[in-house]
Design a protein that fits this description.
With 102 residues, the protein is an alpha+beta fold. The chain has helices at residues 14-23, 62-69, 75-84, and strands at residues 3-11, 34-38, 53-59, 85-93. The chain is 27% helix and 29% strand. The longest helix has 10 residues, at 14-23.
Length: 102
């Protein structure tokens, strides 16, 4: 079953975060992951949620997503991100939407 890592990022140290952007892809492909959205502009349609930076990653399984998140390849990037930004991050499991399935 596919898994998605969904991240809201609030950057408070832009200079350091620039370093993170170069390190962030480390290991994603090795764990079968890919970016679906990275740093895209967000527009609030309902409610008060107003993310400034938004990322969605797709992995073949939740285990692969967790392995990447805990990996030695991603550890240096994670440390820089945690130092330069605050994040809300969730792991969502489920199949891709199939309009033919009700």
């Amino acid at each position: 079953m596919r898994a998605y890592v969904v991240v809201e990022v609030n950057v408070h140290d832009p200079a350091t975060y620039e370093t993170y952007k170069g390190l962030a892809p480390a290991g994603i492909a090795a764990y079968g992951g890919t970016y679906l959205v990275r740093g895209a502009k967000c527009t609030t349609l309902e409610g008060s949620w107003d993310p400034k930076r938004f990322v969605i990653l797709e992995f073949p399984t939740a285990d692969k997503a967790r392995a990447w998140w805990n990996s030695p390849e991603y550890a240096p990037a994670k440390a820089v991100r945690q130092k330069s930004a605050s994040t809300q991050m969730i792991l969502v499991e489920g199949p891709p939407f199939d309009p033919g399935v009700k």
